[in-house]
Amino acid sequence: LLQQLATLATAAQEEARKSWQQLQVQRQEVARLQEQLVRARQDGERWASALQRAQREALEREATRGAEQARQQELIRDMKGRLLELLREKDALWQKTEGIDTPMPSPPPRDAGLCTRCRKDFRLLSRRYNCRLCQGKVCHTCSVDVGKQGRCCLLCYQQRHSQAT
User: Where does the FYVE-type domain start and stop, copy by copy (predicted)?
Assistant: First the structure.
């Protein structure tokens, strides 16, 4: 009986030692997993911080882009207004100088290759346009693009534009 008890005690001690070793291995595994969890949380915080920074930068870029676009649209609006002023001024000056010269008679058929406004020859690089309002033949400089209607001479454009305002 004593021997059986000694054998059982030895077996119990061996089993306790194995359980202890398994417990130590599991504790080491738990410690390793906790370290991984801490690193994962730190990585998550870094990624969240980087995401917030990227979102902030994107919002700043978008605000800058919007301000730049608004500035460019204002510049375009100003340039269009200035262009109309210059066209009016050019036409007014042209009308003033038109009275100084003797009035030109209607172009004879041989002058069909000349601009009716500035008398420039139509060649390869100076294109001829038909005014959609008075049907005169004008060059690019003496005409205005009026969109889908085509082109018209500056005089007709000014008359039409002054009537519209």
Answer: 109-161
Q: What is the pLDDT of residues 92-107, one digit of tens each?
A: 888 777 656 554 545 4
Whole-prediction pTM value? 0.37
DSSP category for residue 121: B
Give dist(CA 90, CA 87) in Å, integer. 5
Is residue 80 very low, low, confident or very high in pLDDT (cuts 50, 70, 90)? very high
Taking CA atoms, 132 is separated from 22, 58, 150, in Å, by 99, 50, 7
Q: 152 forms bridges with which residues in the sheet?
A: 144
Domain extents in the chain: 1-96, 113-164
What CATH number is given for 113-164 in this structure? 3.30.40.10
